[in-house]
Amino acid sequence: MADPKIEDILAPFRASVKEQGDLVRSLKTNGAPELDVKKAVAELKLRKKILEDKELALAPSDATFDRAKMEDLLRRRFFYDQSFAIYGGITGQFDFGPMGCALKANLLNAWRSFFVLEEQMLEVDCSVLTPEPVLKASGHVDRFADLMVKDIGTGECFRLDHLIKAHLEKLAADKKTSQATKEECQDIVVKLDGMTKQDMSDVIQKFNIHSPLTGNELTEPIEFNLMFATQIGPSGLIKGEFTMAEIEHFCDPNDKQHPKFDSVKETELLLYSACNQMDGKSAEMIRIGDAVQRGLVANQTLGDKIVAKLVLVIFWFQGLVANQTLGYFMARIQQFLILVGIDMSKLRFRQHMSNEMAHYACDCWDAEMLTSYGWIECVGCADRSAFDLTQHTKATGVRLAAEKKLQEPKVIEVTEAVPNKSVVGKAFKKDAKVVQDYLAALQKDVVVEIQKALKESGEYVATINDVNYKLTKDMLVVKNYQKTVHVEEIIPSVIEPSFGIGRIMYALFEHNFRMREGDEQRTFLSLPPVVAPLKCSVLPLSGNAEFQPFVKQLSQGLTRLDVSHKVDDSSGSIGRRYARTDEISIPFGVTIDFDTLKSPHSATLRERDSMGQVRIPLDVLPSVVRDLSYGKTTWTQVESAYPKFEQQENTKAT
Q: What is the pLDDT, as a whole number, of residue 444?
């Protein structure tokens, strides 16, 4: 918001957010009761939402965008439609049609090329389903479960905390409600996050909450896990959950420099830091190199520390490692999104505040895109630290670590528990290997603890997989010695960029929807060639039989070069057929006309957005279209290399 008049309007809203942000900081610093902090955070979120809504309302509107027209185009040309539409459809479920499927495939191919190939990553294709113990160890089962209730008449489901919140907020806003009841409602809303199943059930009963749609009674609360449990195996007794595909980049937790960071450090990103959010400030355009150097993008969430200057002092003097790797991937994410057609002016990176940080992340930024629905999160980029590997090691006993070569060998002190295999074997029989593996994986502090217990009482009870095993002095020996090592073992941190393909696709539709100047009924999608569903159309001027050999020649040439294309020899004017191909975002069109019959044979090549046309020899046309489609040349370069075709195109959608 650069307009001084607009900033004057926003000033009191920004001041209100900052006031509440300062209160939250103060409460946390002074160790205030958790309930007081939650109340303050809830109020902060409310004020932030009011500020953002006001910012969006005052922002210059995109006069050329009409969501209804866009959705009409997308459904009419079957980019997507609601699943089972002829049966009434299912809310929130959509099917991609031919154009949508092609766009999605091209988007994923561009993603693979940009990240997997350029970063020399290794791709794995894993099972769609994950056993419950895996997700339980990572925290997804316990931390991503919600309570639901059902309408006993219709079976309609409602998320319980949302239902209670909506009902109580409506009740509190009613002028007839007493002040005491209003305060009670507000208090319950603040406490909702920490409420148990029974607590919420009591609220339903006390306030006589019914289905908001029918007024019917509701069932008792039931647990619903956001990971969508399904059943695996013939017995159906093994629970699974669905998973996502993401980038998992492993790095040294003590050295998060990236060898290619210099190549992106000058990249400017619109960063909406946690600190700015709490201070009521706008997002700022910052070079990623500066953001990393200042500690804004760091090993831990520094955004909502008490004083920003103090953060930098802590960052420099405590020697925190600059998180170049997280910064590198944020810059690469932006480059990719712009490549596939996201409008840079409608893209920002918002840092998670400490109260919303995922359980595994030590810093996280969301790439958000501005749409007619507001800012929506499309890509998450999190530093997950070593959480996953540590948790899965604890759950399985399998050491998930990496070895890092040392610049110079070093001598280390080793303390280990060496089992007496014959005694352990006689004592534990079939479980002997379990005990031996347990002893081999022990950390030094646990070995010392066992040694102390054996010395004092002669025994130590080890709990392995919920089973107790009594260890005695004759079963093991604790050895202390020095060892020269050339490598060190580390548990890597994980930087995880996670892409929501469906959300990116929707943002692409909005950011690339266009209407022809002078003819608002003629709408089209201006998708970049790299992701456009089809790259080229081949249009014979008429049904003249003499055109067919040239159409066939050109189609075969495009196919040999892996250029997707569509031959449209239907009836209708060339202008009408151009309009049809524009609607499905075909970036280039070749017209076979009567001049093509003359030697040397040539045809016109049209560019979708400018509607400019050039005349190109038929034998090189396929390679020119290929180079245009995959970014090896530009339309400006093609226009300078070949003669322009000046015939005016009728832009009326006849």
A: 87
Q: State how far the Cα of 428 lies from the Cα of 426, in Å rounded to an integer.
A: 6
Given a contact cutoff of 8 angstroms between Cβ atoms, the answer to whether 338 and 344 are in contact is yes
Which class is 145-226 in CATH? alpha beta
For residue 218, the 8-state DSSP code is B
Average pLDDT, rounded, for the chain: 87
Cβ proximity of 328 and 264 under 8 Å: yes
Each residue's pLDDT tens digit, 631-645: 999 999 999 999 999
Alpha-carbon span 92 to 524, nearest angstrom: 25
Supply the DSSP string of 284-316, one letter for each residue: EEEEHHHHHHTTSS-SS--TTSS-HHHHHHHHH
Helix, strand or coil for residue 238? strand
Domain 404-490 classified CATH 3.40.50.2000?
Answer: no
pLDDT, position 538: 97
> Would you call the peptide bond into 497 cis, given omega within 30 degrees of 0 as the criterion?
no
Cβ–Cβ < 8 Å for 261, 324: yes
Task: Concatenate the DSSP letters of all residues of 111-180 into one string.
Answer: HIIIIIITTT-------SEEEHHHHHHHTHHHHSEEEEEEBTTT--EEEHHHHHHHHHHHHHH-TTS-HH
Model confidence at 648: pLDDT above 80: no
Q: Is pLDDT at 237 greater than 80 in this prediction?
A: no
Number of Cβ within 10 Å of residue 354's Cβ equals: 15
Q: What is the mean predicted confidence (pLDDT) over 356-362?
A: 72
Tokens standing for 612?
């400019």
Q: What gap in Å lies between CA 525 and CA 532, rounded to an integer?
A: 9
Q: Is the pTM for the entire model greater than 0.85? A: no
Q: Which two tokens stand for residue 574?
A: 């060339």
Contact between residue 530 and residue 106 where contact means Cβ atoms under 8 Å apart:
yes
Which tokens is 395 given?
A: 């759950």
3-state SS record for 251-277: EECCECCCCCHHHCCCCEEEEECHHHH
Cβ 364 vs Cβ 383: under 8 Å: yes
Q: Are strands 157-159 and 129-131 parallel, antiparallel or unpaired?
A: unpaired
Q: Which uninterrupted H or E stretch holds 472?
A: strand 467-472
- Copy the structure tokens of residue 418: 């060496």
Range 610-637 average pLDDT: 96
Label residue 156 exposed, middle or buried (CB < 10 Å: 0-12, 13-18, 19+).
middle
Rg (alpha carbons) of the chain, rounded to whole number: 31
Phi then psi dihedrals of residue 213, to 5 deg = -95, -40
Q: How far apart are CA 189 and CA 354, in angstroms?
A: 20
Amino acid in the structure at residue 595: D
Q: Minimal CA–CA distance to 93: which of 80, 79, 77?
A: 80
* Residues whose CB falls within 8 Å of the CB of residue 604, separated by 6 or more in sequence, listed in order: 590, 591, 593, 613, 614, 615, 616, 645
In which band, very low, low, confident or very high, does the pLDDT at 305 lie, cut at 50, 70 and 90? very low
pLDDT tier at 240, thresholds 50, 70, 90: very low
- The three state secondary structure string of 480-549 is EEEEEEEEEEECCEEEEEEECHHHHHHHHHHHCEEEECCEEEEEEECCCCCCCCCCEEEEECCCCHHHHH
CATH number of 534-641: 3.40.50.800
The domain segmentation of the chain, as residue ranges, is 1-60, 145-226, 404-490, 534-641
pLDDT for position 615: 97
**CA nearest to 55, candidates 275, 273, 283:** 283
